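Researcher: Structure for this, please.
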Amino acid sequence: MAQAKVLDGVAAAKVIRHEVSQAVAKLKNKPGLATVLVGEDPGSRSYVNGKHRDCSQVGINSIRIELPQNVSQTELLREIDDLNSSKDCSGFIVQLPLPSHIDTNRVLSAIDPDKDADGLHPINLGKLVLSQSGVIPCTPRAIVELLRKNEISLSGKEVVIIGRGTTVGRPLSLLLSSKGIDATVTILHSKSSDIRSHTKRADIVIAALGSAHFLTADMVKEGVVAIDVGITRTSEGLVGDIDPGVVKVASAIAPMPGGVGPMTRAMLLSNLLTLHKD
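Model: Predicted structure, token format:
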């Protein structure tokens, strides 16, 4: 079998940033994106830095809020309240994960749904459940857009998602099974039995559990489309959930890095345009 096609998220994101830039140029008032970063996690900091670079490239104003690892939940909620009322902020994100002493659900619920650029507020997730128009979580949307730009159909396909997290797995399952996308979706998790029997029959496997090289070539069928969303910091650097050997049997693969990550950042810019009131 020929080498798998690489789904290039960097190239696809560049196209989306250009489209966003053109849209921003037509606005009377520039949108403003704010990020809230708690602590010094290198991965989170790098990701936030990338978001601000993206804003600079497309003409969006950006606001940085950086708080220490030991910040109190009360202080964090105060910062969120300030952004909710700020006229300079069209939308914002709180970078996850948060320290263990912070109630993540309480923080996400405190964000004004009309400024929720990540699409993770309970109201926006509820709209996704009900198939109502609203902001779609960035990574699930990024996966769908990356497949669309590579002309990979989801309609009627057997899709297996490994991981049931609230930022990727759960909202992605809702999005993929919605009318108009029409995939048949199975979610696997730590209590799933015989994971290989599920992944082996899938047309598309999306690995989003954060376990280095978890998905191996013997777990998928020939011609599978493999999407790597997980990330693990190892002594060799950052690695994804998909073992390099999968490339020998897959028809297409979204690698980590360079696949879903750049598209997730591009979707954030697109979401911000949706939220912006000119």
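Researcher: Any notable elements?
Model: The chain has two domains: 30-113, 137-261. The domain at 30-113 is CATH 3.40.50.10860 (Rossmann fold).
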